[in-house]
Design a protein that fits this description.
Blueprint lengths: L1 H24 L5 E4 L2 E5 L8 E6 L7 E5 L8 E4 L16 E6 L9 E5 L6 E6 L5 H11 L12
Parallel strand pairs: 2-6, 3-6, 3-7, 4-7, 4-8, 5-8
Antiparallel strand pairs: 1-2
Length: 155
C-alpha cells in the first residue's frame, strides 16, 4: 500500500516535470530580436514579465494595432516561410523578455484592439507560417512593455 501511495504521488510530479521541460525548452514559441534583447511568447503566464490581453471593443483598448497589407507602412513586419534550422533569436539569449497572452483584460495588462482600419499605435505586417497576427501584435506591444508608440491615437 505504501508503494502505491509513493507511486501515486510521484507520477504527477514526473508529468509536471516533462510538461515544464517541453514548455521552457522549446524554441517553437514566436520570438523576435529587438536590439540587444529578444521578446518571446510563452504559455507559462506566471513566468511572463508582461501579460497582454485582446479586446473586440476599441473603447476598452489601451493599445491599438492595425494590420496592414503594405510592409513599408508597418512598424513591425514578420515574413517567413515556416520553421527554420537556423538558431532562433531567443536561443542562448539570457535577456529574453517573456510575454503571455491573457484571456482577461483589465488591471495593468495592456489590452490590444486589433483591426485592419482606423488609427493605430502600431502597424504590423504579417505573412508567416509560424506567427499569427495576434502573436505578432502581442510581441510588438510586449516589447514596448505595453506602452503606446504614438501619441494617444483617437477613434
Amino acid at each position: 500500500m505504501l508503494r502505491f501511495k509513493i507511486l501515486a504521488s510521484v507520477v504527477p510530479l514526473l508529468a509536471a516535470a516533462v510538461f515544464a521541460r517541453n514548455e521552457t525548452g522549446s524554441i517553437s514559441h514566436p520570438c523576435v530580436a529587438i536590439g540587444d534583447t529578444s521578446v518571446e511568447l510563452t504559455s507559462l503566464f506566471w513566468t511572463a514579465g508582461v501579460q497582454i490581453a485582446f479586446t473586440d471593443d476599441p473603447a476598452q483598448a489601451t493599445v491599438r494595432v492595425q494590420i496592414t497589407d503594405d510592409p513599408d507602412a508597418a512598424d513591425f513586419a514578420v515574413v517567413d516561410d515556416g520553421e527554420s534550422d537556423e538558431p532562433g533569436a531567443c536561443q542562448g539569449n539570457p535577456s529574453t523578455q517573456l510575454v503571455a497572452i491573457s484571456g482577461q483584460g483589465g488591471g495593468n495588462r495592456p489590452t490590444i484592439y486589433l483591426s485592419s482600419e482606423g488609427p493605430a499605435d502600431y502597424r504590423i505586417y504579417v505573412r508567416s507560417k509560424t506567427f499569427s497576427r495576434r502573436e505578432a501584435a502581442a510581441l510588438i506591444v510586449g516589447a514596448r512593455d505595453g506602452h503606446r508608440h504614438l501619441q494617444a491615437a483617437s477613434l
